[in-house]
Amino acid sequence: MDRVVHFEISAAEPEALVGFYENVFGWKVNKWDGPEDYWLASTGEEGTPGIDGAFMRPADGTPRTVVTVEVEDLDSTVAKAKENGGRVAMEKMAVPMIGWAAYLVDPQGTVVGLMQPDEKAGM
Fold first, then answer.
1. Phi-psi category of 47—alpha, beta or left, where left has phi over 0 and alpha has psi -120 to 50?
2. Long-range contacts of 102-105, Cβ-Cβ distance < 8 Å, separation of 24 or more
3. pLDDT confidence of residue 34
4. Alpha carbon of 43 to those of 6, 16, 31, 54, 65: distances in Å?
5. Is there a domain that residue 63 lies in?
6. Looking at the structure, do residues 53 and 81 belong to the same domain, yes or no?
7. Which of 1, 19, 24, 122 has the fewest CB atoms lying closer than 10 Å?
8. Do 44 and 89 belong together in one domain?
């Protein structure tokens, strides 16, 4: 069974959200050392229930929260989504040393992220 493993909260100024979430929930937030403006949020101690996430700028300017589901086969999952009324919001892309990612839109308009782990992605 595929599981939610990550979330993304998008906003016009995601860096301005850092203090809010750190102060309100005690999360630890650090800017990712990658090519995109992306702030990683640790929501608890390793090994405890819950998932970690991130803050980012929305590509289309619309603030939203997206959950990311880890899948065994991204291409197969995208095909199944299309067969069941979904559409692709962002085509498959490599996240270096992490895996392969894509975004879907479900039949009611909710964006869902997909991640297929692969440490060799993008290399």
1. left
2. 102/74, 102/78, 103/66, 104/78
3. 81
4. 11, 17, 15, 10, 15
5. no
6. no
7. 1
8. no
pLDDT at 35: 81
Mean pLDDT for all residues in the chain: 92
Q: Does one domain contain both 47 and 86?
A: no
**Domain count along the chain:** 2
Q: Residue 118 belongs to what domain range?
A: 71-123
Mean pLDDT of 87-101: 94
Total count of residues recorded for the chain: 123
Over the range 87-105, which residues count as b (16 or more CB within 10 Å of their CB) and which as e? eeeeeeeebeeebbbbbbb
Q: Is residue 121 a part of any domain in this protein? A: yes
> What's the average model confidence in pLDDT over 81-93?
95
Q: Contact at 8 Å (CB) between 7 and 51?
A: yes
Question: What is the pTM (predicted TM-score) of this model?
Answer: 0.82
Strand partners for 56 = 10, 38
Please check whether residues 81 and 113 belong to one and the same domain: yes
Q: What is the identity of the amino acid at 91?
A: E
> What are 28-69's pLDDT values in tens digits?
999 998 888 899 999 999 888 999 999 999 888 888 899 999
